[in-house]
Design goal:
Keywords: Membrane, Transmembrane, Transmembrane helix. The chain has five helices and no strands. The chain has one domain.
């Protein structure tokens, strides 16, 4: 089993910051009576999904000893959460929340493609070198 390289997970930290901002925006949309969508089931759903997104991104950013399969599952679930929340924000006409989901998708892509802490193997590494590491 290869060990994960240690580095700063910039994508995961950006996703965490985006999730926190999204939770604040979702709470404002849920409880602000002047916006026309307050106290509707859709806003409660978005509030719950952004809370789950915050918890998932917190796990992704802070839990460094997580197995690769759990990291992959959590990353996939965060993608589904981002896309579902973006669709709900679009239907609720919550533009700022939709913009946060766009930034969150970019952060997710950074985490999947470019983060040094994700444990991606070098594609030129042979099996013998992989077994030795």
């Amino acid at each position: 089993m290869t060990s994960k390289p240690q580095g700063t997970a910039y994508g995961a930290w950006l996703l965490l910051a985006t999730s926190l901002i999204s939770l604040i925006l979702a709470a404002a949309a849920t409880f602000n009576e002047g916006n026309g969508i307050a106290y509707t089931p859709g806003t409660y759903l978005v509030l719950a999904s952004t809370t789950l997104m915050l918890l998932g991104s917190l796990l992704l950013a802070l839990a460094r000893g997580m197995p690769r399969w759990l990291d992959g599952l959590l990353t996939f679930l965060l993608l589904l959460d981002l896309l579902g929340t973006a669709m709900a924000a679009y239907l609720l006409q919550a533009e700022w929340l939709l913009a946060c989901m766009g930034v969150g998708l970019v952060a997710w892509l950074i985490h999947v493609i470019a983060d040094p802490a994700t444990g991606k193997r070098d594609r030129h590494m042979t099996q013998r070198q992989e077994a030795a590491s």
